[in-house]
């Protein structure tokens, strides 16, 4: 599957060319895929994608965070190259995150960096297993409300099977962000769209499990608190209103770092990837 990065800057191309380790780990009967950058047996971070996404959303971000640390990005079950399940829960996904931290050769307590639904998964991991984490960094995640991806999956769950496209280009032409986002670097968009596909009978289809995702409810997080330190980055043009952010502050604790990412949409790795790298690097430096 060719990827057209002709318009991409040097830093992006170098990030995609960085050495990457690919592995799998068994979690509750499902094989979970992950990618990792940097030296093994170092302190590190786990990158947790949002709903309908996958580990390769971080391909241009992970290598830039791997200086002196191990960086692991996983495919949550039902996403990417990981196995599908009959039912998906935040608690199971949180267990997957901790499992890949160990399997991916992170030494000590990892920091979790989660976007949107991945931010909720990271928060649940901190609430349930705070003593096993060094902190969580959350990117434009509503935490107390359903994410746009969850709403989309519930509304659009197919009854006749996943959509199959005759070619990669045909599928890429239909790739959309949820919620829609006007700004996105074209080389990032193209790379992520193409790595979101798998070959199936008759053509190409998206990797996420559209048949089961979003079924039923999910556990309420009302009244819960994070079990570790928190840095929260709200995108200026994202989905989290000031009112919702105020409702979440008590969940993060009085010492949480809460900052706005300027000019960023809900998917900041698409339109402000270097701002994301800078934000995470700054937090890690302060926490160390």
Rg, rounded, reads 18 Å
Q: Give the beta-strand count.
A: 10
> Going across the major beta sheet, what is the strand order?
1-2-4-3-5-6-9-10
Distance between the termini: 40 Å
If helices are DSSP runs of H or I spanning 4 or more residues, what is the number of helices? Answer: 9
Largest sheet features: 8 strands, mixed
Can you walk me through this structure?
- With 288 residues, the chain is an alpha/beta fold.
- 31% of the residues lie in helices and 21% in strands.
- The protein contains 9 helices and 10 strands.
- The protein has helices at residues 10-17, 90-103, 117-129, 148-156, 168-172, 186-194, 242-252, 268-271, 273-287, and strands at 21-27, 30-37, 44-48, 70-74, 111-115, 135-139, 197-200, 203-206, 230-237, 257-265.
- Helix 3 links the parallel strand 5 and strand 6.
- Helix 2 (90-103) crosses helix 3.
- The model has no long low-confidence stretch (mean pLDDT 93).
Features:
10 strands, 9 helices, globular, alpha/beta, single chain, 288 residues
Concise description?
Helices cover 31% and strands 21% of the residues. With 288 residues, it is an alpha/beta fold. The strands form two sheets. The protein has an eight-stranded mixed beta sheet with strand order 1-2-4-3-5-6-9-10, sandwiched between helices. Strands 7-8 form a two-stranded antiparallel sheet.
Write the layout of secondary structure elements.
Elements: H1 10-17, E1 21-27, E2 30-37, E3 44-48, E4 70-74, H2 90-103, E5 111-115, H3 117-129, E6 135-139, H4 148-156, H5 168-172, H6 186-194, E7 197-200, E8 203-206, E9 230-237, H7 242-252, E10 257-265, H8 268-271, H9 273-287
Parallel strand pairs: 3-4, 3-5, 5-6, 6-9, 9-10
Antiparallel strand pairs: 1-2, 2-4, 7-8
Helix pairs in contact: 2-3
